[in-house]
Amino acid sequence: MPSFSSPLTDRVQTAQLTIGHTLDNPTLVMEALVTPGVALPGLTTRMDGHKELALVGDAVLKLALTLDGYEAKRSRDLISKTLQTKASNVNLALVGRRMGLDNLVIVNPSQAGMVSDKVMANTVEALIGAVYMDSNSIDAVRPVLAAMGLDGPA
């Protein structure tokens, strides 16, 4: 991991404790916490901050929920409703705030320290994406989803 200042390292460690998973590549956690427009010395994030990881996380979340529903022999309608509810930005923002992740997000200076619901939802998705990219395993993501209350029907 690049050498970050202690507050940044603390954010990464706190995020990992919060989601209940320690990544082999903690730089992915930092990328997940950085919003578009933020430049940090020593961190080569993508131009859109955590948006690419959020795309991965969104896909992984939907895949996991769909597989959970399928394996539980749920109807297609129930699986769709679960996706609409649990994977919605409104729910993801609530999950992130409930877990205190809004205190860890590194926002663009133009946001004056405010973490919008959209940014919070993207951050949750990005953290899910980071776990998947680190492990390349949906099974590694499942306990994180459970810790977030985002696992599917049993």
UniProtKB/TrEMBL annotation:
InterPro entries: RNase_III_dom, RNase_III_sf
PROSITE patterns: RNASE_3_2
Any one Gene Ontology BP term: RNA processing
GO molecular function terms noted in the UniProt entry: ribonuclease III activity
Top-rank taxon, per record: Eukaryota
Coiled-coil residue spans: none
Segments forming domain RNase III: 12-136
Protein name per Swiss-Prot or TrEMBL: RNase III domain-containing protein
